[in-house]
Amino acid sequence: MSGTATSATTPATFLRRIIGNVQALLSLLVLLVILTLVALAPLVAGPDPTSADLSSAFGGPEPGHPLGFDSSGRDMWSRLLHGGQLTLGGAALALAVALTLGVPTGLAAGFYGGWFDLVSGWWVNLIMALPAMVVLLASRAVLGSTVWVLMVVLGILVSPSFFRLVRGTVANMRAEPYVDAARVFGLRDSRIIARHVLIVVRAPIIIQTALVAGLAINLQAGLEFLGIGSGDAPTWGAMLNEAFTNIHQNPLGMLWPGLALGLTSGSLVLLASALRDVLEDRDDQPHTSGPGEHPREADTPTTPRHAGARSELLSVRDLTITYPGADSRPNKVVRGVDLDVHPGEILGLVGESGSGKTQTAFSILGLLPAGGRVSRGSIRIGGTEVVGANERTLRRLRGRTVAYVPQEPMNNLDPSFTIGDHLVEPLCATARMPRSAAWKYARELLHQVEITDPDRILRSYPHQISGGMAQRVLIAGALSCSAELVIADEPTTALDVTVQAEVLGLLRRLRASRGMAVLLVSHDLGVVADLCDRVAVLHRGRIVEVGTTEQVLTAPESTHAQELRNAVLDDVPARQPWSPREVDAQ
Ligand SMILES: Nc1ncnc2c1ncn2[C@@H]1O[C@H](COP(=O)(O)OP(=O)(O)OP(=O)(O)O)[C@@H](O)[C@H]1O
Questions:
Q1: Among 5, 176, 179, 425, which has the highest number of CB atoms less than 10 A from its own CB?
Q2: What count of other Cβ atoms lies within 10 Å of the Cβ of residue 2?
Q3: Other C-beta atoms within 10 Å of 110: how many?
Q4: What is the per-residue pLDDT for 2?
Q5: pLDDT score for 582
Q6: Integer angstrom CA distances of residue 168 from 120, 164, 273, 523
Q7: C-alpha–C-alpha distance, residues 313 and 516, integer Å
């Protein structure tokens, strides 16, 4: 089964995506213009921002003074550009402090947990409990009114936002199997953090940075506006303060610093939202294929099309699933798939790893991972179109018409709840059964999946039962709302051979007794031969052969079905026992 959406984006790809995103491009352009003008203030601003000429007070624009003069006759254009240096510089300092404090401590607390997590958590809670304005006022009284000092204090006050973000993300991934695997390979923690952890947290950090930058600029301007800042120095907040006091004589005076603040913080917020889309591979385009889409290989029509009458239970036509590719162009992982599962039938969906089996199954359930979308085609379950359907329609179908049996039974049971809770909750919520009736029915379901002591199992927590038992419980869950179609994704892969046979036998008996249909996702031809009426073979996202199980397994027509069959070792002579002479011979 595939993992979740992650994007290992190179800087060049990232840049290309930014350029391809109108919102990101426009907000970046606005910010670049503002930053360039502010950085070049000594060259382009003209007169000294502090030199006053009372004879020009409240004067309008004139050559060399495009924005006119303030109440003391100081040039507004010059004050705006020089003021930007203090306002934006102060915000950058606050951000640098917040990042320096929040990110490394968040990484360490999330990765190592333990006493460091506990102690840093207390500190962060303490800082968050402090009223920011009161702390800033007290800091000004104690440390002086220099804008830089106040910005350092502000940086400390906003650092918990980075700490919490990074700690939460890292703590979630600490238990990921690939982190354990990296440890097993003997990698040092510093390398694991640099290689596996930073990649995951960098996108949220970049987004948060853009948001906190906007906040810091506005807080800094707010302090200056209230007169808590650095006195005479020109800043956007101080300009607003001065213009506000003289609003009746010169209402336009508020416009320029207000516009500078609004444009800067607005662009930062828009940039953060666009970055989220770009970095997290979100794609909110309508679900249609566009001219820019390109398959990894030519779209040669190898798919055997059987676009005849559609099954009333499950009918898939021309299904195409797309993810944003590494080069920012759409990557089709399933292409033009046609499938039908008839009532009471077991259809095997087979193919090598990565051929698109799980993606096809998830799209039928309307549960594609983030970034994935059905870019073309139709999926009908019980006559209802799933592609483009709203969540309410999908919820109505899931559990009632179609149910799912996963590959890893243990991962799909919440360790905090008993098996009884797992079975009873959905019965109460979707079938609206009273609790006592739901418990009785859950017991009956466990009987149907051939569990001999249902009362003990209902009271047990997931860790108290075996993998085979857990899979039976999940099958019972799939049966609970009398679904007509069960999608089983490698339901026996995680089980040992004896239990595999038991579960397969159970599925076969349930089909016979309840008449339910099964779409069985598997790469194990033995399982398919044992259970399925028909087989569809997937190769690189396309169906290359469909037929009865006997026909596909005994006389496959397509090369890929032949290859799959040849990979089964049944007819191959067993290897001779190992003998030390083999080593000598090498
Ligand atoms: N979240 C994702 N983001 C991008 N591509 C994905 C994602 N999940 C799967 N893919 C790609 O989709 C293709 C099909 O994956 P899928 O999981 O359906 O394969 P599969 O046939 O079920 O393989 P397996 O038997 O190993 O589970 C693969 O090339 C995979 O790289």
A1: 179
A2: 15
A3: 25
A4: 40
A5: 46
A6: 13, 6, 20, 36
A7: 10
C-beta of residue 379 within 8 angstroms of C-beta of residue 386: yes
DSSP letter for 310, please.
P
Q: Identify the pLDDT of residue 81.
A: 92
Q: Environment class of residue 1 by beta-carbon count within 10 Å: exposed (0-12), middle (13-18) or buried (19+)?
A: middle
Q: Please name the residues in contact with 463: beta carbons below 8 A apart, sequence gap of 6 or more.
A: 415
Q: Tell the residue number behind the tokens 């073979």, with chain if given.
A: 537
Q: How far is the CA of 553 from the centre of ligand 1 (A)?
A: 24
The model's pLDDT over 530-558, given as tens digits with 9 standing for 90+, comes to 889 999 999 999 999 999 999 988 888 88
pLDDT of residue 229: 66
The DSSP H or E segment spanning 133 is helix 132-143
- At 186 the pLDDT is 63
pLDDT for res 518: 92
357 alpha carbon to ligand 1 midpoint, in Å? 8
Q: Is residue 545 within 8 Å of 306, Cβ to Cβ?
A: no
Name the residue of 339, 358, 522 whose CB sits within 8 Å of the most ligand 1 atoms, as the mutation to test its pocket: 358
Kindly provide the ipTM of the predicted complex, given to two decimals.
0.95
To the nearest 10°, report the CA torsion of 179, 185, 188, 192: -30
Q: Whose CA is nearest to atom 31 of ligand 1?
A: 354
Query: Pocket residues for ligand 1 (CB within 6 Å)?
Result: 1-2, 4-5, 323, 333, 351, 353-359, 369, 371-372, 523
Burial class for 115, CB neighbours closer than 10 Å (0-12, 13-18, 19+): exposed
Count CA atoms within 13 Å of residue 63 on its CB side: 0
Q: Whose CA is nearest to atom 29 of ligand 1?
A: 354
Q: What is the DSSP string of 484-543?
A: SEEEEESTTTTS-HHHHHHHHHHHHHHHHHH--EEEEEES-HHHHHHH-SEEEEEETTEE
DSSP state of 253: G
The predicted structure's pLDDT at residue 302: 42
Nearest residue (by CA) to ligand 1, atom 1, is 5
- Ligand 1 centroid distance, CA of 411 (Å): 19
Enumerate the β-bridge partners of residue 522: 350
Q: What is the 358 CA–ligand 1 centroid distance (Å)?
A: 7
Residue 85 Cα to ligand 1 midpoint, Å, equals 49
Query: For residue 490, which atom of ligand 1 is closest to its CA?
Result: 25
* 437-484 residue pLDDT tens: 989 989 988 888 888 889 999 999 988 998 888 888 888 888 787 788
Give the model confidence (pLDDT) of 474-516 as tens digits.
888 887 877 889 998 888 776 777 777 777 888 888 888 888 8
Query: Which residues touch 245 (CB under 8 Å, ≥6 apart)?
Result: 71
How high is the pLDDT of residue 305? 46
Please name the residue whose Cα sits nearest to atom 16 of ligand 1: 356
Which domains, ranges and CATH numbers included, belong to the chain?
A: 27-46+68-279 (1.10.3720.10), 294-401+485-568 (3.40.50.300), 408-482 (no CATH)
Take atom 8 of ligand 1 and give the residue whose Cα is closest.
2
Which residues of the chain fall short of a pLDDT of 50? 1-8, 282-306, 575, 581-586
Rounded to 5 degrees, what are φ and ψ at 334? -135, 135
